[in-house]
Structures are given as structure tokens and as C-alpha cells.
Design brief:
single chain, 5-stranded mixed beta sheet, alpha+beta
Amino acid sequence: MKLVAAALFSLSLLLPATTGAMAAETTEGAAPWRHATSLIGEPKYPAGFKHYDYVNPDAPKGGTLNSAAVGTFDSLNPYIVQGTPASGFAAFGGGLLYDTLMEQATDQPGTNYGLIAEAMSYPDDFAWVKFRLNPAAHWHDGKPITPEDVIWSFETLKAQSPMYNKYYANVVKAEITGDREVTFTFDKPGNRELPNIMGDLAVLPKHWWEGTDASGKKRDISKSTLEIPLGSGAYQIESVSPGRQIVWKRAEDYWGKDLPTQVGRNNFDRIKVDYYRDPNAGWEAFKKGGLDDYRQENRIGRWMTEYNFDAVKDGKVIQRSFPLASSGRMQGYVLNQRRDKFKDPRVRQALNYVFDFETMNRTLFFDKYKRINSYFAGIDLASSGLPQGKELEILETVRDQVPPEVFTEEFKLPVNDTPQAFRDNLRRAVALLQEAGWVLNGNKLVNAQTGEPFTIEFLESDPSFERVVAPYIQNLKRIGIDARLRVVDTAQYVARVNDFDFDVVSTVIAQSHSPGNEQREMWGSAAAKTPGSRNLMGIQNPAIDKLIDRVVFATNREDLVAATHALDRVLLWNYYVVPQWFSDTINVAYWNKFGIPEKQPEYVGIDVYSWWIDPAKEKALGAKP
């Protein structure tokens, strides 16, 4: 799923509403053509709208957005497990290079508007969806985007990408059904989100990928490549220096530049991304100026104490915070159940008792963070209290397969608000570990049967994360666990995570307001065995598989919320992660070279692609044109 958030391409999911705006034409007795669909009531904008209401439709084009990335890259193909793709690509969705069938709205949750597809149609039972392609849509080489491209993209991405494979698991047929029309048929009716999420399909150029490169060698989309690929989006690649830099240039003949979702956006002539070996080097690049023009600051300590350099004092660097309402999330330490030591839920629960969020929030985070208490933290899909009503009915179907506490206790994480509370929680952790077959041998925790010591390796790619891992490691050592941090380079980190070769990693799992098919790839049993999937925990739980299906086949919003609450509750009571913290604001610092619309989209917080370069401000900074 692709989640619209700030200026980053990530994942989200949209459900179609039972109602949706229709294009003017309909056929009596047939499913109507729609210019948009929305989960929450009607789409904000009617057919024929000119642009989003927050953008400046007359924003000037020009200038360069300088950006910094950490680590390296070795591929321009983001749709396979192998390799690390360059900035601007997206593992799901089109990124900067490829357009998708439909475009997710930036200023309203659960809403899609036409992009490559000028309209879509589906029946009341959601058994299929049909897209009608925009006749103006074409690739950067001038060739039209065809139904054959759409079908080839669907079949290829489903075969190559674990994410697409799980996302579109219920799509059984793709076929050309009319002039510029493609129809996707589903294995059964009732999956309300499938018509809409088919709009998330990135469309790739069949003729290019099936062609040959400059040396005459046939291209292979199943392999990494550094050949600059052909695309269709608002940007194309100008130059690549593998592992060091990628430069994107605005496509002057971009076919979709006058579409309402694109007007007033994509204003930078160039987007230059330089790579730095670690986050500290990236931070220094931002402070220097001219190398990194804006950064989303995710370290509250830096945000509060380190923005005191001269450029900030002189007003050349601006700090602003924006509310974020676009997504829920689970952020936490993932406990890999593929390791025997984490298979017992009592062990996983014990590790939660050792984590001291309250002290960290006070001493490291300036009391600015909130504790994660749900896999959907921050939105209305987070469970709370005891299950009742429809949620309880759903949970009754798996009663014998879930922890009994699901029905009798409100889920609450341990609180360490006093020294005595923390000591009590450590004692509780030791007791749980002993129940699970671990005993203290001197000051070391060992397996009671084998004598094997309990060890944990925290795997990270960012050295600065030691600051927040160290307190947890220290507390684990207090109960006899040999815990340590291992920092590896980005390429090794990605490879090990894709292969599930780790004890514990820290991750953020974003959730939209409309969960559905992607839940299979996050928590489903089949995904646990698929390298590169997001089921990092290795969950293989029949009850969770069943609850995921209840989410996927929810009949209406009320049913969806109840099913998601039930899924959330069972995930929590199995202690698959040690939840960390979150913030419901976006902290952004930028060099004062931009024109920014007075209004930014409340749903996603900021849309940096609605900004533009102000030549007068840039000149005042002393920047080179």
C-alpha cells in the first residue's frame, strides 16, 4: 500500500465507499463510471475539478531541490527483493518515475482520483473492477500507455514482488475488455477494497523491459539494474552515480501535468539526492547549506537542542511543526519468532516488562512522545477497553485460539513511573522467563535444560540509534540477558532483514485508515515464509489469519472497524513486538528558499511537491542558481 505522508513515498490503502462520485456517462443497468471513490462519504472534489484547494495553481517551475539520503544504493529496480533501490523509487506504488492507475488524494483519507485511468467502474458486489485509460497517457519516449502495459505490469509485479503478491492475492484474472479498458476479476465477491487498491498498481513499460539495452542484452525485470529505466511520471532520471548520487529532472512533456491532482505540484526542475555514509554526515550536510534543503527531523533531542547554529539564528533555516493525521502505526522492537528463544509468548511478554519508556521519554525525548499502545496507534482503528458488540462477536469465532486475556483484561503496557514500579516490573519479567524455562545462573540467564545463555543482538544500520537502544540493553543485562547492539552498513542491513536473519530490529509499520489486503503481508502465515515480506515477526497464527480475512471482507465501515479492533487486540496480547513511541506531528526544518502555499493538506501534514523555489529567497541565501 502507498501511504501519502509528507514528501515521502510510502504505503497506504484505500477502501472504496459504498457510494462514490460518478463521471457523467453511465450505461443503464451497468456499473457506473466514476472519476473518484471515497471511503468516507463523497470525494471532496467533483468531476471536472481543476486542482487541490491548497495548492498554488500558478506556482512557478524551476530550480533544484537538494536532498540527502543515508547509506547507498545499487539498483534502479525497486520491485524485487535483491538490491537497494535509489531514492525516488518506491517498492510499492510508482515513486517519481512511474504513474499508477489512480492517484491517492493528499488532503482526504480514503480517496482516489484518476491518473493513468481516467475513470473506473465496479459492481455493487465488488466482484471486479474496470479501468478506462486516459488516451493522453504516454511514456517518456512518446509511446502510448496501453492496456497491454497494465496487464503485463500486474502479472510481472505479482510474480516478482512479495508485497504485490500478497496485496493482489485475490485477483485471479486481468484482461482487455474494450477500447482502452482493462478489467480485473476477483476470486470471490465482497472484498470492498480490491476495486480501489487496484488503482495503486504501478504501470511499467512492457516494450522497454522486454527490449534490449545498449549492448544488445535482453533486459530482465527480475534482476537489479543500473540502466536508467523508461518511465511515465512527472520526473525522469537525469544522471546516476551508483551509491553516491541520483539526479531527477522534471519531464517537460509530462503527459499528466494538467490533471487536477498534478496542477500546482511537481514544481522543481531538478531533484538532486546525494548519499552520505551515516546520519551524522547527512546532518552536517544540512547545516552547511546548499546540499540538503529540507529535512524531516525524527530525533526530538536534535530538534530541541541542536538547531542552534547560525543559519537558524539568522532566519535562514526555518523550523516548523505540522499535524499528521494520515496514518496509524506500530513502532517497536520486532522479536523474530524464527529464533527459538522468542517462540514462547511469556518470553516476549517479559521483554516488554523490561522496557522503560517513561524514563526514556523524560531523559531523552523531552516528554514529547506518546507510548505506542496499538498496531494502529493514532487513529480510530486502535482497540481500547474490553471487546464488546460486533468486535466481541468476531473474537468469539477464535476464542479457543487466542490468549484468554483478550476477553477479560484491557491491554495495557507496563508503566515505570516510579523506581519501585520498575523494580516490580523487572521481577515480573524474571518470573515469566522462569515459567518459560530460563533460570538465573549467577548473574546470567540460561536455558534450564541446555545451559545455553540468553542472548539478544539488536541489529541497526544507524549508529546514532545506540542512544535509544543503550538504556534497554542495560535493563536487559540487569536480569541476566546478554544483549548487545550490532550496527552494519545499509546494504547488509537490508539483506539481513529481507532474509529474516536477525534477533531484534526496530521498525515502523504504517497503517492507513482503511486496512485490508496488505495485512496478509504484514501478519499472515504465508508471508512469514516469504523473504522480503513485512511479516518480520514470523507470525504463523491461524487465528490471526482468520481475523485478517474478516478485515479484508468487511461489508461496511462498522464491520471493518470492529474486525480491525479484534485483529489489533490479538496482535497485542501475543506480544510480537516491544512497542516504542510515536508523535502525531511532523517536524520539518528547511532553508528559506521556498515558496510554500499558505495552507498545507491537513491529512498528510505537508506536501513538499506543492512547494516551489523562490529565486529572490534563494539569492538572499547566497545559493548558486
